[in-house]
């Protein structure tokens, strides 16, 4: 069966975004020493997704989102924040620096 959605530019864009998010998530969890089957991850991912959705809306309104990488970076910062709140150490070098994203996240995590 042919993938009709795969031709839609918006679908292709979102697939790229989510693929990048998954890759960055794997890398972050590996650097933090969290196995992919850790029982805490379901709860952490749900909370991170909730925060990410808020942050994405704020960043979109401000015009602070440039590409797939920046969207994935927003998610990774949300995930790291929730992991840290669950006493999981995140090495500072594991997170890409982005001042615009930091400002957005400070609004989300007031």
Q: Any chance you could write out the topology, listing elements then pairs?
A:
Layout: H1 9-32, H2 41-62, H3 68-85, H4 99-108
Helix pairs in contact: 1-3, 2-3, 2-4
How would you describe the overall organization of this protein?
- It is globular and about 40 Å long.
- With 110 residues, the chain is an all-alpha fold.
- Helix content is 67%, strand content 0%.
- The mean pLDDT is 90.
Report the span from N to C terminus: 47 Å
- What radius of gyration results from the CA coordinates? 15 Å
Number of helices: 4
Helix/strand/pairing class, anyone? mainly alpha
pLDDT < 50 stretches: none
Order of helices and strands: HHHH
Biggest β-sheet, characterized? none
Summarize, please.
This protein has helices spanning 9-32, 41-62, 68-85, 99-108. With 110 residues, it is an all-alpha fold. Helix 1 (9-32) packs parallel to helix 3.
Question: What keywords describe this structure?
Answer:
single chain, 110 residues, mainly alpha, 4 helices, 67% helix, globular
